[in-house]
Amino acid sequence: MFTGIVLGRGTVHQIEPMGADSRLHINSGSLDLSASQEGDSIAVSGACLTMLEPRVDGFCADVSTETLELTTLGTVTAGRSVNLEPALSLSQPLGGHLVTGHVDGVGTLISRKPDGRAERFEFELPRGLGRYVARKGSVCVDGVSLTVNGAEADRFSVCLIPHTLEVTTLGGLAAGDGVNIEIDLLARYVERLGEYS
């Protein structure tokens, strides 16, 4: 479980093909992983992966065919920056919202415009996900917990403050770029419960 509060930005150092799967070698940048152990979960741009060979400055992670097909990790290239968040422990504050790291689909940045000192980003959602995104609700974009400012049938907008633009990979996005989208966990369960009422 994660919060969507990115704790560091890493870099994909190497992509090692492993048959139909891949192993990513990731440098963790300023994120200290010295307390991490083999098998710990880590969110990489919003996708929950299992840490292999953790060291102070990085780790490896195997990426399944499903994850490669359903997330932007399937098109990642060496040298690309990724958002990193180790799994939540019970002693940590919940600063964002509950995030599972189970990406629902890849959205697309349509536009970004100045909004005071912040920037307003508009994203197009994969088909069928719009119903789960509500104004003033939460959404996770590339592992970043964000508040939805506007929501339409197949798109939504968020306002990113300078801090978020600086410390996450979202500041480097351009129109047309793909992002990992995870809808709010509660929306999934509300729909499921409704099927039985």
From TrEMBL:
EC number(s) from the headed UniProt entry: 2.5.1.9
InterPro entries for the chain: ATP_synth_asu-like_sf, Lumazine-bd, Lumazine-bd_dom, Riboflavin_synthase-like_b-brl
Recorded coiled-coil stretches: none
Domain Lumazine-binding: 1-97, 98-194
Protein origin, superkingdom: Bacteria
Pathway terms, separated by semicolons: Cofactor biosynthesis; riboflavin biosynthesis; riboflavin from 2-hydroxy-3-oxobutyl phosphate and 5-amino-6-(D-ribitylamino)uracil: step 2/2
Pfam families referenced in this protein's UniProt entry, alphabetically: Lum_binding
GO BP term, pick one: riboflavin biosynthetic process
Ranges for the Lumazine-binding repeats: 1-97, 98-194
Enzyme class, first EC level, given as a word: transferase
Family matches, as CDD domains: Riboflavin_synthase_like (cd00402)
GO MF: riboflavin synthase activity
Keywords noted in UniProt: Repeat, Riboflavin biosynthesis, Transferase
Catalytic activity from the UniProt record: 2 6,7-dimethyl-8-(1-D-ribityl)lumazine + H(+) = 5-amino-6-(D-ribitylamino)uracil + riboflavin
Function field: Catalyzes the dismutation of two molecules of 6,7-dimethyl-8-ribityllumazine, resulting in the formation of riboflavin and 5-amino-6-(D-ribitylamino)uracil.
NCBIfam families for the chain: PRK09289.1, ribE
PANTHER family listed in its UniProt record: RIBOFLAVIN SYNTHASE, RIBOFLAVIN SYNTHASE ALPHA CHAIN
Descriptive protein name: Riboflavin synthase
Species this protein is from: Elongatibacter sediminis
